[in-house]
Structures are given as C-alpha cells and as structure tokens.
Write a structure and sequence with these properties.
Number of helices: 10
Number of domains: 2
Radius of gyration: 20 Å
Strand order of the largest sheet: 3-2-1-4-5-6-11
Helix content: 40-55%
Number of strands: 14
Shape: globular
Order of helices and strands: EHEEHEHHEHEEHEEEHEEHEEHH
Length: about 325
C-alpha cells in the first residue's frame, strides 16, 4: 500500500525542501501538503514540484483540520507550519502563540480522533533553550529551557504539548529541536539570507554598497536545509516516540563571520551599518548544539558545511533577482 505523507506548511522554506527530498527519493509515497489560501498563499517554492497534492487548510480552524485528517488518514505528518521568525514574534506575540500552539492542538485532536496510528514529527527549535550559560555548551537535550522570545515560548509549548499527548494518549510523536538552518529559498527576514540578498543587490547594482545589520555578536550553529530535511525523514523512521532530539551541525559561527564570508562572494567594496530596527529586546548569545543522541539512533551526519550553506543562499538570491528582471 502506498504510504501517505502530510507536510503542513509545504510551501515554506523547509516544507518545500522536504517535499523535494521525498519525491526525489521515492516513487511509492503520496506527498500531500497544507497551504492556507489558494489565492493568497505564495506557491513559488513548490510550483516546480508536480508530484505533491495541495490542500487548503487553515490549521487554526479545528473544523478544517478535522476534515483534512479524517479524509486523508496520513501515515506520517511532518508538522512544519508555523510563525517561525523570532523578530516577528516580538511584534505580534499573540498571533505567534495562536498560529503555533492552537494549530498544533487542532492537529493532535484530529489525529487522536480520526487517525490514531499516524506518526507525527513536531519540529521544535534551539530557541527553546534560550538563555544558555557558558558551561552549558554544546547544548544537549537535557539542558534547561529558558526561552527568551515569544517565538521560543510558543515552541516550548508545542514541545511540551507533544510530550503530554504521548504520555496521556499514546500519540506516536517524535520531538526535534533543530538549530539554525539555511540554504536556497530562505526568506530574506532571516539574518544570513538578509545579508545574502543585500549583497546580491549590491553585486547587481540594485542598491548602494551598504549592508544593514543588527546584532553581530551572537553565535549560531548552522546546518544546510538539505541535511535538515534528511534528518527529519530519519527521525520518523528511527527515533523513539515521545523522545526529543537535537539536530545540528555541532559548531558555532559568529554572525559577524557570516557577514564577512558572504561579502567575499563579491568584488564590490561594501560598508556595514547597524540598523536599530533589527535589534531585539533580548537575544540569545550562543546556540551551539550537541546532536550525538540523534546521530547514534539514526546514523545521520551533515554532508554540507557552512561555506556550502552561504554559497547556496547567495546564489539563490542572485538568480532570483535576475529572474525577476530587477537588473538594470
């Protein structure tokens, strides 16, 4: 029997790469995905993948979710739909809580009622760890959760909701905490992609040679999105239900170094200028993870390094700007 996979938020950055990974590697899996609106959702990331079936579903609407799960009866659900930008969560905390927490609650209730054998991946975030002390890096799954943003709070809630549903109802759920991941299609409001887009615009003569930035002192652990989606697939294949797993590269890169490496992709002379609007009320200083637990269970290891990530992100923006005919 053909396996049915449902990816919520399939048109997003990670969702589209996961759809590509599954359709590129299997002919025997039906890939389904949720989008919020047929006429208002951006489908650019998946318009070239004709092997997926899209379903309009507002996950905040419990009726929508119930009807979808009852009809589809998926074998696996990769729950990726979310408000995933930390800075946006400061501007709209209530929207972030509603989108991330209520949507997952609706999904769990629908699965428990209509498809209890479905296996679910709940995608958490390294932001859940929040305030990490110097002696706590690299961060393991046992580290305390001290969230420092509304987004991080919402992800902790999703994480704990998954754990509660596993213990209370036997829901077949795997919890992951992925650290920063990037590559092509990364939205421009994320730091590395913002830098890449600005530098690509400078390279193509579309803006003055000044890159605007926020906090450059933070240290982050970057993994290529292609490695991340492969990890997500392995998580539902090999990980223990109810358990939690870090997914990361395992080393940190200062944001100032990210900017300097991206600048090297152009011969233009570029100035860097702080933009106060890009600063957050509080920022996590260091997020570097330990994913030995996940590696031991799955055999996963990253294929791409930081230079691959930045090169792919920059090339994506150069190509996209050219395709949109913004070049003078």
């Amino acid at each position: 029997m053909t396996e049915k996979v449902l990816i919520t938020g399939i048109n997003g950055f990670v969702g589209s790469h996961l759809a590509d990974f599954i359709t590129d590697n299997s002919c025997d899996i039906e890939v389904h995905g949720t989008i919020r609106h047929w006429h208002r959702s951006n489908l650019e990331n998946i318009e070239f993948n004709r092997s997926v079936e899209l379903h309009e579903c507002n996950l905040v609407d419990s009726h929508n979710v119930n009807e979808l799960i009852k009809t589809l009866q998926p074998d696996k659900v990769f729950h990726l739909a979310a408000q995933s930008h930390v800075a946006t969560s400061w501007l709209s905390p209530n929207d972030t809580y509603t989108t991330n927490i209520i949507s997952q609650s609706n999904l769990f209730e629908a699965i428990r009622t209509h498809s209890p054998e479905t296996v679910v991946l709940v995608v958490g975030s390294s932001e859940e760890y929040g305030l990490v002390h110097e002696d706590e890096t690299p961060i393991t799954e046992d580290n305390s959760l001290r969230p420092l943003s509304p987004y991080a709070v919402s992800k902790v809630a999703q994480d704990m909701m998954a754990l509660q549903n596993f213990h209370s109802y036997g829901l077949k759920v795997v919890r992951t905490r992925a650290f920063n991941h990037s590559g092509s299609r990364r939205p421009a409001h994320f730091v590395d992609s913002s830098f890449a887009k600005q530098i690509a615009e400078i390279e193509l003569g579309l803006r003055d040679p000044i890159v605007k930035h926020g906090n450059l002192d933070a240290i982050r652990d970057f993994t290529h999105v292609k490695d991340i989606v492969r990890a997500y697939w392995l998580a539902l294949e090999k990980c223990e239900y109810g358990d939690v797993y870090n997914i990361c590269y395992g080393s940190g890169l200062k944001i100032s170094e990210v900017l300097q490496r991206l600048i090297k992709f152009t011969d233009k002379t570029i100035e860097c200028e702080i933009d106060q609007s890009r600063m957050r009320p509080s920022d996590v200083p260091v997020l570097v993870g330990d994913c030995n637990k996940f590696k031991k269970v799955t055999g996963w290891k990253p294929i791409f390094d930081n230079d691959d990530i930045l090169r792919d992100t920059y090339a994506y923006w150069v190509d996209k700007l050219k395709e949109n005919k913004y070049v003078p």
